[in-house]
Amino acid sequence: xxxxxxxxxxxxxxVRNRIAMSPMTMYRSVDGRMDDYHVSYLGARAAxxxxxxxxEQLAITPDGRTTVSCxxxxxxxxxxxxxxxxxxxxxxxxxxxxxLGHTGRKGSVVTPWEGGYMLPPEHPNGWQTVAPSAIAYGGxxxxxxxxxxxxxxxxxxxxxxxxxxxxxxVGFKWLEMHYAHGYLGAExxxxxxxxxxxxxxxxxxxxxxxxLEALDAVREVWPEEYPLTMRxxxxxxxxxxxxxxxxxxxxxxxxxxxxxxxDLSLGFNTDAMQSNPFNDPGFMVERANRVRREVGIPVAAxxxxxxxxxxxxxxxxxLIDMVxxxxxxxxxxHWPVWTARELGYDNPFALVPEDWGWWLRNxxxxxxxxxxxxxxxxxxxxxxxxxxxxGVRVDSDAGVSEAA
Length: 404
Ligand SMILES: Cc1cc2nc3c(=O)[nH]c(=O)nc-3n(C[C@H](O)[C@H](O)[C@H](O)COP(=O)(O)O)c2cc1C
Description:
- By secondary structure, the protein is of the alpha/beta class.
- The protein has one domain: TIM Barrel (Alpha-Beta Barrel).
- It has 13 helices and 13 strands.
- Strands 3-4-6-9-10-11-12-13 form an eight-stranded parallel barrel, surrounded by seven helices.
- Helix 9 links the parallel strand 12 (299-301) and strand 13 (322-325).
- Helix 1 (36-47) packs parallel to helix 2, helix 2 crosses helix 3 (150-170) and helix 7 crosses helix 8.
- The longest helix has 21 residues, at 150-170.
- The chain is globular.
- The protein starts with 7 loop residues before the first strand and ends in an 18-residue tail after the last helix.
- Residues 387-399 have low confidence and may be disordered.
- The chain binds flavin mononucleotide.
- The site of flavin mononucleotide has 21 residues, from helix 10.
- Residues 3-337 form the NADH:flavin oxidoreductase/NADH oxidase N-terminal domain.
């Protein structure tokens, strides 16, 4: 039975545990580039024990960014920063992963803390957005996107392929297509945003054509031994939007087109969602597990899985294969170490670089002053019954070990 610290092998890539830092847009790039800021915060998560580490969604074209300060992989000038990110993550034992995306009708906005509203195409920091259909998102995003022509859709595949080539060149070993969160892939999938009458709209088959063709374009250039995955906006929580039953069928088709893992999320194609799961722990897990069972493909999920017991149990119960953490990864770069201690796994400090780990294990001193919360009482009590000397329970199932 796997647990949160069991290594995970997909294709030719082994991740040291089941914990991913989920992609998170930082709004800190100049001309789409990554710099010291990105190298340091991503390196910190690798040093803190995360197995798979994503920078933010990286745009395949300049108008595929969310704001002018978002990252991209559409220009050679962006490669040096990305190579630095990959190199540090790899050196510290993590696997560098890339999320490729295009924001479609949700681009040309200002940062969330400036209000997140949309800028008109003529604004110096705005642009003419594109989408499957000329339908504005509405609310704070009022400007109507231009409907993509078939030729322009095909040009996007070429952009995906170029970005994927560069991604492999700079050292990424895992690639996720962003088809969720109201961005271009989610828009094609949702009847709320896609009302085309050609072969890219209407039936489920047509609304999934973009995803399959983009996967084909990437699979052709992305090394066969590296995982090709995607995050799908699998449900709009709206009667006229994307439906989960359809997502299960579509993921089956994607599997036939070379998909190695499905990361399940929501559509976010409308503000008028008819249910509000956002306070519920692990609310995507059940849906992800259905995909795992019915499609027979490894799955990942994020959303409210930051409690150690919750994250561990969804792996132990074999509901999902990887836990993608967003906010917990922002809040605590050492979330994996803290969690390993909290759950009583043996040798949590094997997750940090060996030179730190040695000191944390061996330097005499006052355990509570180490800077991480001490394991809770139940863990300490369990340790007492197993005679473990370092104050944590020995768990023979644990993937965390000296050699990890
Ligand atoms: C600051 C921030 C930026 C995000 N940017 C992205 C992104 O670029 N791509 C993406 O797929 N999800 C993005 N997300 C969503 C997260 O990856 C994650 O799915 C979500 O936060 C739910 O997981 P959590 O409950 O662990 O935070 C973002 C979330 C946050 C908090």
